[in-house]
Design goal:
Length: 559
């Protein structure tokens, strides 16, 4: 059972954990930690909090994600997708409000896991995730323009994209050539490392070289030290956030948004890991692990935790075999914090902005976008709507709008595949006569209808218009449902209306081939004896009204 509530770490221990696996996991954990170190600080700064909070998130939240989660390879930590939501929460409610919202979101995630809601996340349409991710990439990049170009601004930077761009344009005269050069150098190093040494930690090397360059040349650029005074080199003491009913009500919308986005992001990341490894995650257990991780992160002053797709993919490629790699990744980040914290003050903010600019570029899945625009106008509309709502309105609204449009598109496509054929005297032979070989009868007293396809609310109106043609001249009405794999209550209601009309006109109603599930739904909607007679096959229903199939002679039908 793939969705049982047992952490994958427990499953791994039951399998038997060997020293060779520990070595592989340790190497993978170190690789991911090197990637996570600059990213965690950059995401925290861009989210409007101090850099160490990003590290606390990777350490404490990341450890719990691997310990209690439902994926073997998931790497938890701060994610770029949360930057906009976290920054908005901090602006409205302060850091204490953010920490309380993070803890409440953890409770929501735990509840969702125990309610087994994780399996429903997979129903989010692919164009929605592509458009959503691309929109986040644009928003994050817009937030990095200030540090990328070393702008000297006054007042608070607006949140909405257009207002932000107009505001930043007003300060373009303050562009720092030195900060811009550091950002360009950082991005160039990352690209060169990716091109020629893809197995090396390009992000960390780029940030390290930029820091050395800025320090040796004495460049006048803002650093972690000048803005934040550095980062602490000690483990924080766990503290409960400030709690009050008033503050909890204020941050409740943020907590809901954190939980919704966290569940989507983490389960998508787990799906990516499944595709790369051939394994299967436990979605509900993953949500529980993410929930406990968010509560743990909040206790230690961290921000929102979620599964991170890029770091999880790095973990798989680095040869991880179990959740131990994710736990060791957190231990390595903690070691870096304790040992190298004094060096962090030399890191230029322009270098971290360059790292995030590179991440944003990769978040826009250009090949996927091109493929969706080529494949279907409907998918292109869903993608575009999600993207535009995300960048101009709100992340959660973008997901909801995209999901609703995707659902309507699915309904429209499925409804086209539902067919209802009116056969006043054209009956169908059973399988022994060959698949769907028609034979003709001249009996004017029997009306025959066959429904094919998934019969649901999207096709209810179409089918109803056909069934409404039942005439008084018929004595028998056979409804063949043998080609209906599923029907919902709307479909059953349509059939109930047709049966009611037939019964009122003294017409005998026979339903053939309905599956047990379909019959259960029909009977629950009052389609049952004595108004209706059920038969397992069409042949049995035809025999009940004394219709006998004629003899077949090759391809010719003899009536």
């Amino acid at each position: 059972m793939t969705d049982r509530l047992e952490p994958k770490f427990v499953s791994v221990l039951k399998e038997g954990y060997t020293l060779s696996r520990l070595k592989a996991d340790a190497l993978a954990g170190l690789t991911v930690a090197i990637v996570a170190l600059p990213l965690s600080m950059a995401i925290a700064i861009s989210s409007g909090v101090t850099p160490e909070r990003g590290l606390y998130t990777a350490i404490f939240g990341g450890f719990v994600v691997s310990l209690l989660g439902g994926s073997r390879f998931q790497i938890g930590g701060p994610a770029g997708a949360f930057i906009v939501l976290v920054a908005a929460c901090v602006a409205r409610n302060g850091v204490e409000g953010l920490i309380l919202a993070t803890m409440i979101s953890g409770l929501f995630l735990i509840a969702a896991g125990f309610l087994r809601l994780g399996k429903y996340i997979k129903y989010i349409p692919y164009p929605v995730t592509v458009g959503f991710t691309a929109g986040i990439g644009v928003i994050i990049f817009s937030g990095e323009i200030h540090d990328l170009f070393g702008l000297t601004t006054q007042g608070k930077e607006p949140g909405p994209l257009i207002d932000k761009l107009i505001y930043l344009y007003g300060y373009m005269g303050t562009v720092s050539a030195q900060a811009t050069a550091v950002a360009v150098f950082t991005i160039a190093v990352i690209l060169l490392m990716k091109r020629f040494m893809p197995n090396w930690p390009g992000l960390l090397i780029a940030v390290g070289l930029s820091s050395v360059l800025a320090t040796v040349l004495g460049l006048h650029v803002e650093t972690i030290g000048t803005r934040f005074g550095g980062i602490p080199d000690a483990i924080p003491v766990p503290n409960l956030p400030q709690m009050s009913l008033d503050l909890a009500l204020k941050v409740l919308p943020d907590a809901i948004a954190f939980a919704l986005l966290g569940s989507i992001e983490s389960l998508l990341s787990a799906v990516v890991a499944d595709g790369m490894s051939g394994r299967r995650h436990r979605s509900s257990m993953e949500l529980i692990g993410q929930g406990v991780a968010n509560m743990t992160s909040a206790l230690f002053g961290g921000i929102c935790v979620t599964g991170t797709i890029a770091r999880t993919a790095t973990n798989v490629r680095a040869g991880a075999t179990s959740p131990v790699s994710g736990m060791l990744h957190a231990v390595f980040v903690l070691t870096f914090l304790l040992v190298a914290a004094p060096l962090a003050k030399y890191i230029p903010l322009a270098a971290l902005a360059g790292v995030l600019a590179f991440v944003c570029y990769n978040m826009i899945e250009k090949q996927a976008i091109a493929a969706l625009f080529r494949s279907s106008w409907g998918d292109a509309i869903v993608l575009s709507a999600t993207f535009l709502v995300v960048i101009f309105r709100d992340l959660t609204e973008g997901i909801l709008v995209g999901f609703v449009l995707g659902a309507f598109l699915f309904i429209e496509r499925m409804a086209k595949h539902v067919q209802v054929s009116e056969q006043p005297g054209d009956l169908f032979a059973d399988d022994s006569e060959g698949p769907e070989k028609p034979f003709r009868t001249t009996d004017p007293d029997t009306a025959v209808y066959r429904i094919s396809g998934v019969f649901f609310f999207g096709a209810a109106a179409t089918v109803a218009s056909v069934l409404d043609r039942i005439a008084d001249r018929h004595k028998n009405f056979i409804l063949d449902c043998s080609s209906v794999p599923f029907m919902d209550s709307s479909a059953a209601n349509v059939i109930e209306g047709a049966v009611r009309k037939a019964h009122r006109n003294g017409i005998r109603v026979l339903i053939a081939g309905a599956s047990p599930d379909a019959r259960s739904i029909l009977e629950a909607n009052h389609v049952k004896a004595p108004e209706v007679e059920y038969f397992a096959t069409f042949k049995e229903a035809a025999a009940a009204v004394h219709l006998q199939p004629p003899r077949f002679d090759g391809a010719n039908v003899k009536a």
